[in-house]
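Quick one - first record:
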Amino acid sequence: MATRYTDRPIPQISLHDFDARIDEITAQLIHAAENVGFFTVINHGLSDQDIESMFSNSQRFFALPDDVKATVPWSSKNVGWEKNAQVRPSTGMPDTKESYQLQFGENMNDVWIDESHLPGFKTASLEFMTRVQGISEKLMRCFARGLGFREDFFITAHDVSRPNSQTVCRLLHYFALPEESDGKVYHRAGAHADWDFLTLLFQKAGQSGLEICPGREVVTEFGIGDVWTKIEPKTGEIVCNIGDLLMSWSDDRFKSTFHRVKAPCEKGDYYGDRYSIAFFNQPCSDAKIQGPLKKYPMVTGQEFTANAMKRNFAALQEKLKSIAV
């Protein structure tokens, strides 16, 4: 089935003069969450130079030899480096990428790349992550207000200073692909919905590929057969999407929707290396997850993540069976 595209407006929300405009920003954010599931944030306090500096930090890591990156391997604590390892239920094949996933706390013990390889990497990364967390917390205040929770409700649930914080920052490097593929199929990031609370994605101008599928009512078949919208990357614009967890926490009022990084396949597509940075807001493992209407049974942050991983694994097994047939 050929991919179908359409141009759809993605709400753009400015955070300038945040405290004075919080009512206005909350109304814009809630409208975007209810009707689209995606929005972009501008005037958020990070300059293009701040973002490019973090991209440089990321590229310094990925430029290291694989045997050096392997000194900080992916672990069960959801941190570390992986390469060609993530398989999506929508494709049944590995994404052609590598990533280095970072956290704030003790899960990163012995998982930070040694200073002898990348001087200053840890300090620069934590400074950037702290500033992005600050942006996330402004958005969390608005979501809490919109759902009738106390204003610091989601901030408390996502306290990154606690040892059981699950929030992560993922540095991503999608490999350059050949313009002549000789029939081989590549996938940069197959269609998927995030299972976190809220994702903030940074992109580099000129490195296209992100496509979104806004407006779905529920997460069903991993975006297969749907109509997509291309998102042109702008360095200073943060692309945000609602995750499955916030959809549940809002009693399905807010929409978790599909997105992908499509592998280039036609003239005009970007075939070069693509770098992005994804900041996944995930609640502490002991946070209690239940919407104001109590549509779903209460679960902890740890239970929600475990259940999401089980669903993802089950869907992947079904996909692999269909490929085998």
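second record:
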Amino acid sequence: MKIAGFDIGGANTDLAVVEFDEKGKILNIKTDFSYLPMWIKKHELSKTLLELLGTDIDEIDAVGISMTAELADSYQNKSEGVLDISTRVMETFDLPVAFVGLNGMMDYDAVKKNPLQLAAANWIATAPLAAYMAPDCIFIDTGSTTTDIIPIKNGVECAKGRTDLQRLATGELVYTGTLRTNVATIVDKVPLGDDWVRTASEFFAVTADVHLVLENITREDYTSETPDGADNNRENSLLRLSRVVCGDLDLLSPDEVVKIAQFIYQKQVEQVAEALKEVSEREGITLVIATGLGMDIIGSEAAKLQGLEVRTMEEILTPTDCVVAPAVGTALLMEKFLRA
């Protein structure tokens, strides 16, 4: 049996095609993703889903869906977003389809009755993967836009917050990511020589620029749009970062910009570490399982900063699969849903 697990985010749609034997054992995992800004291109969702599957569509037996794209500002509220996305999915596939909700998988009829159960529930799909590695842990999933910090006890997630609003309050969601975060939301001052310089509250540079300049990511990893529409090479990233202090590469040297990037990176890790400390101390858990695009550069570093033991999902998944862990988890939940 082959099951396609999709994680439909506001910026990226991720895919994991998981092949199972008759007993539910995983035989193979194939992953991919596509940049799809749902705030302007939600009408392309069906096309994107089919393009991601490609020729595999003929071998797929069922489809599982998780989502966070209902938060996109093309929707007036989360219910509208969930219903629009789930309807587009149902119109795309003539296959068994179910959706990841806060209490497990839901069919389309259940979604229509209670759409808010699906809102930003993709972390529910990742929790079983972390629990498989350690029954008592905190998993950190840092993607392009956000970081989930979810406690697990006795093999079951025990997050205090259920909605994004609640999780922002409990430390279980930090709105910072590897690619799309405006650096002006991370720092209001940066060091420049012997001075501290206030930053411009403009959309000049994003964390992808920071991590590219520091060689934490490659140009291939920089999949989001650049703030100025220019290329995502190193020189342009340096220029975008220089603008954060209203400079340019005539006023600032590359080394000076790199030092600014290092400071921004440090502060981003500290933001995640602060929330991780809150969850760790509240739950009494000292083991962290990290995954996502920012697995090594943000999640693991935040855990180390707090003196916590850290492991990564690379123990059970390939580095590529770790980037789309919620999609993998969605496929696994779908397989169990079909066997129930």
